[in-house]
Amino acid sequence: MKLCKYYLMNFCSKEDKYTFMHGGFLCKYYHTGMKCYSDVNCRFSHAKLEKNKKKKLLKVYMVNKNIDLI
Fold first, then answer.
1. CA distances from 52 to 14, 16, 42, 49, 55 (A)
2. pLDDT tens, position by position, for the chain (70 residues)?
3. Fewer beta carbons within 10 Å, N or C terminal of the chain?
4. Within 13 A of 57's CA, how many CA atoms are on the CB side?
């Protein structure tokens, strides 16, 4: 499922009736140890990850630096 571009702009009026995702994507900045400048207003998840999931995320990020995780 793809992320709703209107959700990111805080402009989606369809919410649950829409086929695109409205949350659950990880914040690549927060979860890779960088500063997330959106902080509490970030539209991406800052939820704590299990160690194995965080390790996988970091591995993917380090191998594919030029590919967006979002």
1. 35, 31, 24, 8, 5
2. 677 777 777 777 776 666 666 667 888 888 888 899 998 888 888 888 888 888 877 777 776 665 554 4
3. N
4. 19
